[in-house]
Design a protein that fits this description.
The protein contains twelve helices and nine strands. By secondary structure, the chain is of the alpha+beta class. The protein folds into three domains: 3-192, 2-Layer Sandwich (Beta-Lactamase), CATH 3.30.450.40; 196-249, no CATH class; 255-297, Orthogonal Bundle (Arc Repressor Mutant, subunit A), CATH 1.10.10. The protein has a five-stranded antiparallel beta sheet, with helices on both faces. Strands 6-7-8-9 form a four-stranded antiparallel beta sheet.
């Protein structure tokens, strides 16, 4: 099945959910109820720092697309809009379309749409004009990417909606790449903040986002981004079962590898102590005699 056919198949599946699962009528008037400011604040708080981390990324994305009739929207994992950026002249249009803060754009309420369908299918989506399920939404094009949290769970959707009547598929594709990059940047920033006391290892620049591992000073992996989890076959979501870095990235885990690690630790201690064996032994928590024996075994000259 080609990419175009696959996209059409997924679109048809979303339309079927809109009818069969959610009982929606494409001709019904679009709902326009909004959460209160207090409820929006609660949802931002529930995101655990993602909303604040996303702000500069929303600004950067809007600086790229805002002047071309596009708005930038961030929703939580339920599809409620918690932040947005609109150009002054375009703001009334987006507000009229129901894209104000606190609006519900879940697929169960709005049918097939960028935000809701992105969250349900957990993938990048482009819903172009009449691909929307609700007739009241067909004037816009929506380009979305999911945002994943530090434990691999989906936490938000990042959306660019266009008010342009001449929006083309080529334009949508270019915007999608910008949205995808912004979403992955939010994920990386949030991951680094979540594991701020750990050592962050960049292990792969994957197509689905940068693969980051968080490791302790003993090189034990305690965290991984979604892309890293997929790359290394780790559990998709939740707190990781701890594992040595070497076991994941193929480093030598034999006795020779262990000896090299010991040798590196001894050499580092000697360097810090300016080759004073007594001071190095104290740092390593062993006796001077023990350190001399170990240096001999590891063939370390002093």
């Amino acid at each position: 099945m080609g990419s175009s056919a696959a996209a059409q198949s997924r679109l048809a599946a979303s339309w079927c959910r809109s009818v069969a699962q959610h009982g929606l009528d494409p001709g019904q008037k679009r709902l326009s109820e909004y959460l209160s400011a207090a409820e929006i604040a609660q949802r931002k708080e529930a995101l655990g720092g993602v909303a604040a981390i996303a702000k500069p990324r929303l600004d950067q994305l809007f600086a790229l697309v805002g002047s071309s009739g596009c708005g930038v929207v961030l929703s939580d994992k339920q599809g409620f809009i918690i932040d947005h950026r609109f150009q002054g002249a375009d703001a009334p249009i987006f507000q009229d379309w129901g894209l104000g803060a606190g609006a519900d754009w879940s697929e169960s309420v709005q049918g097939t749409n960028g935000i809701g369908t992105c969250l349900v299918e957990r993938r990048d989506v482009i819903i172009h004009r009449d691909q929307h399920f609700m007739a009241g939404n067909i004037a816009m094009s929506c380009i979305d990417a999911p945002v994943y949290g530090a434990q691999g769970e989906i936490v938000a959707a990042l959306d660019v909606s266009s008010a342009r009547v001449d929006q083309t598929s080529a334009m949508n594709g270019m915007i999608l790449e910008l949205v995808r990059q912004a979403a992955r940047s939010i994920e990386a920033d949030h991951f680094r903040e979540t594991f701020s006391t750990a050592r962050i290892l960049v292990v792969d620049d994957a197509s689905e986002g940068v693969s980051l591992l968080a490791a302790t000073s003993d090189d034990i992996v305690v965290g991984a981004t979604r892309a890293a989890r997929r790359a290394f076959g780790l559990q998709a979501e939740g707190e990781l079962k701890t594992v040595p870095v070497g076991d994941l990235i193929g480093q030598d885990t034999t006795s020779k590898g262990f000896e090299r690690a010991q040798k590196a630790a001894v050499v580092r201690a000697l360097v810090r102590a300016d080759n004073n064996v007594s001071l190095a032994a104290r740092e390593l928590g062993v006796s001077r005699a023990t350190l001399y024996r170990r240096m001999k075994d590891l063939k370390i000259n002093n």
